[in-house]
Amino acid sequence: MHPDAWLVVIDPQRIFADPSSEWGSPMFASIVDPVRRLATAAAERTVVTRWVPARDPQGSWAAYLKAWPFADVPSDDPLLDLVPEMADLSDEVVSVPTFGKWGPDLEAVTGPTPHLVLVGVSTDCCVVSTALAAADAGATITVVTDACAGSTPENHRAAMAVMSLYPPQITLATTAEVLG
């Protein structure tokens, strides 16, 4: 892993990991080991994010949470907890009420134009939203294909196909390539 890169572990939360959750990814269990290996390599340059619902959702977020009422819970609800197997990856946790995690809170940790190595869930929502926004802001992005979990395998592949259209700002790599 490049020594100046930041590993961003996107939303390793129960709401996305639990197979019984309406938002549970069937791919989540397969990314635990690659994410942990990357976090070991990144060490203190690892940051974890959490999706939390807005306290007073506005605009399309109000309709979104109305469509998914199970997810409209307080930010300290156990549904939004980090999964135990990833809770120890970093002391740095950024919680925001948006799909894309790139913004002032994450930028305060990584700096304004970092190299970000993105992993986590869901490839077809929060990962792609983070990658595109960060690249647009000037960050260099590596998305680790086997350390991201989509809402379905098909949606994962579709999101990877979209992100592959953005080189050199966004590149795709495997865990072995990033660690090699």
List its traits:
180 residues; alpha/beta; Rossmann fold; six-stranded parallel sheet; 7 helices; hydrolase
What does this structure look like?
- It holds the Pfam family Isochorismatase.
- GO terms for molecular function: hydrolase activity.
- This is Cysteine hydrolase.
- InterPro entries: Isochorismatase-like_dom, Isochorismatase-like_hydrls, Isochorismatase-like_sf.
- With 180 residues, the chain is an alpha/beta fold.
- It has a single domain, classed as Rossmann fold (3-Layer(aba) Sandwich), CATH 3.40.50.
- The chain has helices spanning 14-17, 28-42, 60-67, 104-110, 123-136, 153-163, 175-179; strands at residues 6-10, 46-51, 93-96, 115-121, 140-149, 170-173.
- Strands 3-2-1-4-5-6 form a 6-stranded parallel beta sheet.
- The mean pLDDT is 97.
Q: Which class best fits the helix and strand makeup?
A: alpha/beta
Number of strands: 6
Number of domains: 1
How many helical elements? Answer: 7
Helical proportion, percent range: 25-40%
CATH class: Alpha Beta
Please, what is the average pLDDT?
A: 97
Strand content: 15-25%
Question: Which homologous superfamily in CATH is the superfamily?
Answer: Isochorismatase-like
Taking the sheet with the most strands, its summary is:
6 strands, parallel
Radius of gyration using CA atoms only: 15 Å
- The shape, in one word, is globular
Task: Outline the low-pLDDT stretches.
Answer: none
CATH topology: Rossmann fold
Cα-to-Cα separation, first versus last residue = 7 Å
Element-level helix/strand string: EHHEHEHEHEHEH
Strand order of the largest sheet: 3-2-1-4-5-6
Query: What is the CATH-assigned architecture?
Result: 3-Layer(aba) Sandwich
